[in-house]
Amino acid sequence: MKIIELAGIKIGFRAEFGISCDEKMNMFSVESKEEECDFVFDVKCGDFPQATDKKLVYQDPKVCVYEGKNVRLSYYRHPAREWEFCVMEKERRVWIYVLPRYKKYAENMWNLISKIELSSRLLEKQTLILHASFIIYEERAILFTGPSGIGKSTQAELWEKNMNSEIINGDRVLMRKKGEYLYAFGLPFSGSSGICANKEAPIRAIVILGQGDTNCVCRIAVAEAVKFLYSQVAVIRWKERDVMKTLGLLEELVIRVPVLKFTCRPEKEAVYALNDYFEKEEERRCEY
Fold first, then answer.
1. Which H or E run contains 258?
2. Which residues fall within 8 angstroms of residue 258, CB to CB, at 6 or more apart?
3. What pLDDT, on a 0 to 100 scale, did the predictor assign at position 21?
4. Do residues 141 and 201 make contact, with C-beta atoms less than 8 angstroms apart?
5. Mean of the per-residue pLDDT values for the chain?
6. In angstroms, how far is the first alpha carbon of the chain from the final one?
7. Which residues, in sequence order, are CB contacts of 165 under 8 Å at separation 6+?
8. What whole-number distance in Å separates Cα of residue 132 and Cα of residue 152?
9. Which of 102, 96, 148, 149 is nearest to 118 (CA)?
10. Checking phi first, is residue 138 left (phi over 0); if not, alpha (psi -120 to 50) or beta?
11. How many whole angstroms separate alpha carbon 227 and alpha carbon 149?
12. CB 87 within 8 A of CB 115
């Protein structure tokens, strides 16, 4: 049994062969009992279950999904190869099948994680994956989000250099309610930044970045925040139930933390401008 823990959620893989983790994944690997896991996947090497008499509900070059009475079959492959994996879900149990000639791929945790619809599993536990750079400053999380290339990593690095903050992840962050607060959690996926750590902190603000000639920050309304953040979260968009649950969860989450629009330049003055905004907000709260 190999178990990883993300945002307090334990995910176990049970196999008759060894499953390897690289350095990043090992940071999230834990020793635990099977009954303590939130999800357990049985990994088997052998022939696939057949999708006979089942309805095709989704298909693309890498994934093919069929549904029948109380059963769901998802087939996975590299576009240049045949179907290599099949995930069967039946009555709350899940099996991951791999053809014997592709067993080596099932021995790698990254390949298994990519076959379990992770965003859907985490959503069951009220947890979202956001495309953002995650830093901790003064024991609170600041999340920089926006389209690829907008400058998320640049702003995170400027805060690290000028404010002695810590970059926890350069590309992805988990968001989950913990007690009365919304927390940010690290996870192994870090994109091209390569930066990740297994740390958590209450979220101070989610900052939507934009490029401009001046540094300007303002808080945006809940509806606008939900609309934008939906474009940056991991969700299986052909699954209507996941979409609706994600939108509802986003609305609940953004009420709890400020979502800011920050048009800025890639310079240290941008750091000071945003920090000034935070300090003034703290002063207003203290007045009340």
1. none
2. 204, 205, 206, 219, 281
3. 94
4. yes
5. 94
6. 52
7. 135, 136, 137, 142, 156, 159
8. 7
9. 96
10. left
11. 20
12. yes
Does the CA dihedral 147-150-154-155 come out positive or negative? Answer: negative
Q: Find the mean pLDDT for residues 86-104.
A: 94
Please say if the pLDDT value at position 287 is more than 70. Answer: no
pTM for this predicted structure = 0.94
Residue 272 token pair: 């000071």
Six-digit token string for 123: 């959503």
Residue 238, number of CB atoms within 10 A of its CB = 13
The CATH number corresponding to 127-287 among 3.90.228.20, 3.40.190.150, 3.40.50.300, 3.90.245.10 equals 3.90.228.20
Indicate the helix (H) or strand (E) that contains 256: helix 240-256
For residue 171 the two structure tokens come to 């590309």
Residue 110, helix vs strand vs coil:
helix
Beta-bridge partner residues of 41: 13, 94
Domain ranges of the chain: 2-116, 127-287
| Distance (Å, whole) CA 118 – CA 111 | 12
Report the distance separating Cα 280 and Cα 262, nearest Å.
Answer: 16
Q: If you average pLDDT over residues 205-225, what whole number do you get? A: 94
| Strand 93-98 to 39-45 pairing | parallel
Amino acid 91: pLDDT: 83
Q: For 117-132, give the secondary structure using H, E and C.
A: CHHHHHHHCCEEEEEE
